[in-house]
Fold this sequence. Notes:
mainly beta
Amino acid sequence: MNDHLFTDEEFSNQNFSEGNFKTADYDNCVFMDCNFAGINLSDSTFTECAFEECDLSNCLLSKTALQNCNFKRSKLIGLNFAHCESFAFSISADDSIFDHSIFYNGKLANARLVNCKMRNTDLSACDLSGSYLAGCDFKDAIFENTNLEKANLKNAVNYLIDPENNRITGAHFSLPEVTGLLSRYRLKID
């Protein structure tokens, strides 16, 4: 537990990159249009927090706890979520950007990531079973030993998922994007 605790507070138009961020426990807080870009969020705990139109790009996340946090129209570019506290890790997102982020070995079962950009994102060894990933852009994302069983990838685009190296039983895909499951076979589909 941190020395500082913020409960039910709203932070609006804050530029935390100027050095005014406190390592703390944030419980049920709302962050609106805040800039966290490049700061150290290590050892902070965010529980039931909402981030809307925030920039968290390139933040350090060593032992950061993200428990049931929601991101809307936010930038989370270049984050290494593999360094987060794994206990109770749970995020959801709408219309957010996770490009160049790492979720290696992450536990994201039943996550809800809708219309997000996940370009060049490492999703290898992740548990995304039962997740709702509709409308996401997975251009150059890495799926290796990823569990996508019963995941919903309807209207997701630009994914290349090898069915032989990933678990996809019961997953939902849309046409024509489902051809991304066949790319390793170099088929010509007309």
